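Researcher: We're teaching a course module on how sequence relates to structure. For the next exercise, students receive a sequence and then see the predicted structure as tokens, so they can try to spot secondary structure elements on their own. Here is the exercise chain.
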Amino acid sequence: MLDAAGYDPLLVETGGVGQGVVEVAATADSVAVILSPEAGDAVQAMKAGLLEIADVLCVNKADRPGADELASSLEAMLDLREDLPWRPPVVVVNALADAAPLRAALDAHAAWLADADRLAARRRRGLEARLR
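Model: And here is the predicted structure for the students to work with:
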């Protein structure tokens, strides 16, 4: 309803991982998966299939130990995937100080979607998934 009313962008936050996250991804134009260091998030992301739905991978709490290592692990996991039409960028931010890199990555994904009518195709796939 908010989309139909002209609100843009809309941000939807989900809690945790699981099927609900995958369902939300079917309705979103861009999906940012936000992970934190020291929480074992890289392993959770792999187990939950979050890397498959992510358009942007974001390591928040850049000031914490392990942030750069988590980002490196995510990059290494992406290196194993050769079939990605869009390679999700991995950004490291401290959201309390500066989330501009996350916004820039989301803007880059939106620009990629706008090229070659990818956005309309993505929305069609989402509608088909919801219908099923």
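Model: If you want an answer key for the exercise: The CA atoms of residues 31 and 54 lie 5 Å apart. Residues 100-114 form the longest helix (15 residues).
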